[in-house]
Write a structure and sequence with these properties.
With about 240 residues, the protein is an alpha/beta fold. The chain has 8 helices and 7 strands; from the N terminus they run βαβαβαβαβαβαααβ. A 7-stranded parallel sheet has the order 3-2-1-4-5-6-7, sandwiched between helices. α1 (about 15-30) crosses α8 (about 215-225) and α4 (about 100-130) packs parallel to α5. The protein is globular. Bound molecules: nicotinamide-adenine-dinucleotide.
């Protein structure tokens, strides 16, 4: 793979799980990386794993547009530019529409939709300067419906189509915008799920197992790299075959 030396990347939701694995992979490929997360304590622990001046920590709630704008400005003043934005921060709240509350919808849409919109909006002026790339962490739950997670599915469906629309709008100016769509991944988000729900997911995954966060990170690193220079507007299933049937 074309390395990411001299690139500057910002990863949201980077204190844990998939986001942490993405930050590690981009760093290993040579990028300077801003790890952004709203959990200050876990972010401090995550950043310790690097022991390097090529990384920076940013406490952020991605659903706060003013703070998101300041985060992008901070990243650029710290590393001089921005080449890669990974919109990965997300939350999952189970439930059908009937079971879920209005508060649940506000919470999930604020992080999973508004957060992606705000980070993209304020990063794009910088990405236009560098002919950069955005990679969103969507989900197979955004490609089709799933049982018992209606608001989550709606939020990830929004990310899938936002990815396509942004790719159309900004491709001509040289910014590529893609997404990865994982199925079940071993992270804090899914650790608490019952065995029954996990089995239901695994049955649909042709490889018969959940993914490691590093397997999602590898796909993100590829989409962010120059090796993917002609890939734009794609929502790539990284799902062990869950959407193959
Ligand atoms: P995780 O809970 O392990 O990590 C999510 C991180 O996002 C946490 O560090 C959390 O503090 C941070 N975060 C949450 N809300 C935030 C906010 N408002 N501002 C800033 N940071 C915030 O979960 P994960 O499984 O690593 O999920 C990462 C992404 O992958 C999410 O978008 C999720 O929807 C998506 N995804 C996960 C799976 C899975 O099976 N785990 C499958 C498909 C997609």
């Amino acid at each position: 793979m074309n390395g990411l030396t001299h690139k500057v990347a910002l990863v949201t939701g980077a204190a844990n799980g998939i986001g942490f694995a993405i930050a590690q992979r981009l760093y290993d490929e040579g990028a300077n990386v801003v790890l952004a997360d709203w959990n200050e304590e876990q972010l401090a622990t995550a950043i310790e794993a690097f022991d390097s001046t090529r990384v920076a920590a940013q406490v952020i709630d991605v659903s706060d547009p003013k703070k998101v704008k300041a985060m992008i400005d901070n990243a650029v003043s710290r590393f001089g530019k921005l080449d890669i934005l990974v919109n990965n921060a997300g939350i999952h709240i189970p439930g059908s529409v009937l079971e879920s509350s209005v508060e649940d919808w506000k919470k999930i849409s604020a992080v999973n939709i508004d957060g992606v919109v705000y980070c993209s909006k304020f990063a794009l002026p910088e990405l236009l300067k560098t002919q950069g790339a955005i990679v969103n962490t969507a989900s197979v739950s955004g490609l089709g419906g799933d049982w018992g997670a209606a608001f989550y599915c709606a939020s990830k469906g929004a990310v899938v189509n936002l990815t396509r629309a942004m790719a159309l709008d900004h491709g001509a100016a040289g910014v590529r915008i893609n997404a990865v769509c994982p199925s079940l991944v071993k992270t804090n988000m899914t650790n608490g799920w019952s065995q029954e729900i996990r089995d239901k997911f695994n049955e649909r995954i042709a490889l018969g197992r959940a993914a490691e966060p590093s397997e999602i990170a590898a796909a993100v690193a590829f989409l962010a790299s120059d090796d993917a220079s002609f890939i734009n507007g794609v929502n790539l299933p990284v799902d062990g075959g869950a959407t193959a049937s």
